[in-house]
């Protein structure tokens, strides 16, 4: 007999999983309370790093079904969701996503849907990188100084160079100027 589990997640303590539970019930899934995992954890945490989800995966067996309302309940991004679904499929667990029309993400059509979603996510990531690089290039061309501001001003950097050339250690200079050894290295490099 197929066992059906549900995973519900919210990001903050002032939110509830009630709407997710209603959606799952309205889709015709009868979930026994012991097969429901609801947790409050940020979506930025990978699925397998979430305590509730990790315990759920330990309970799942070949032939089981896992129901989620939306893909973002499973993972922080398309690649995380894909990895999670692939892992579950490898265990023989079918994953149903209600937001995708109740599609079984482990079926051929579901895998195709996941592939399209992953491709779109990769495309968006590439566009973001491209825009960021163009912005940095423009800022540099306009003479803007990029990166973290120096921990030492110009006068202090000159002093550090002189003292370092005189044999002062990185540690003693770092203590004297109340900065890291790395900041001293940058000033002398």
CATH topology of the largest domain: Rossmann fold
Assign the CATH class of the largest domain. Answer: Alpha Beta
Largest sheet: 5 strands, mixed
Helix content: 40-55%
**How would you describe the shape?**
elongated
Stretches where pLDDT falls below 50 for ≥5 residues? Answer: none
- How many helices? The count is 7
Order of helices and strands: EHEHEHEEHHHH
Question: Total domains, how many?
Answer: 2
SSE topology sketch:
Elements: E1 4-10, H1 18-26, E2 36-40, H2 51-59, E3 65-68, H3 78-90, E4 94-97, E5 103-104, H4 108-141, H5 154-165, H6 170-177, H7 181-188
Parallel strand pairs: 1-2, 1-3, 3-4
Antiparallel strand pairs: 4-5
Helix pairs in contact: 6-7
Can you offer a commentary on this structure?
The structure is a single chain. The chain has 7 helices and 5 strands, in the order E-H-E-H-E-H-E-E-H-H-H-H. It is α/β, with parallel strands linked by helices. It folds into 2 domains: 4-117, Resolvase, N-terminal catalytic domain (Rossmann fold), CATH 3.40.50.1390; 154-188. It has a 5-stranded mixed β-sheet with strand order 2-1-3-4-5, sandwiched between helices. The longest helix is centred in the middle third of the chain and has 34 residues, at 108-141. The model has no long low-confidence stretch (mean pLDDT 90).
């Amino acid at each position: 007999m197929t066992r059906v589990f549900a995973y519900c997640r919210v990001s903050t303590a002032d939110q509830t999983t009630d709407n997710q539970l209603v959606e799952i019930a309205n889709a015709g899934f009868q979930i026994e309370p012991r097969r429901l995992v609801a947790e409050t954890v940020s979506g930025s945490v990978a699925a397998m790093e979430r305590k509730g989800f990790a315990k759920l995966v330990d309970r799942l067996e070949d032939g089981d079904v896992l129901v989620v309302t939306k893909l973002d309940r499973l993972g922080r991004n398309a690649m995380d969701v894909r990895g999670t679904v692939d892992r579950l499929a490898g265990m023989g667990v079918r994953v149903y996503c209600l937001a995708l029309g109740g599609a079984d993400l482990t079926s051929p059509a579901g895998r195709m849907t996941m592939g399209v979603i992953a491709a779109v996510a990769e495309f968006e990531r590439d566009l973001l990188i491209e825009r960021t690089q163009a912005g940095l290039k423009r800022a540099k061309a306009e003479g803007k100084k990029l990166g973290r501001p120096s921990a030492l001003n110009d006068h202090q950097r000159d002093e550090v160079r002189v003292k370092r050339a005189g044999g002062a250690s990185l540690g003693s200079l770092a203590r004297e100027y109340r900065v890291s050894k790395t900041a001293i290295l940058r000033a002398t490099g």
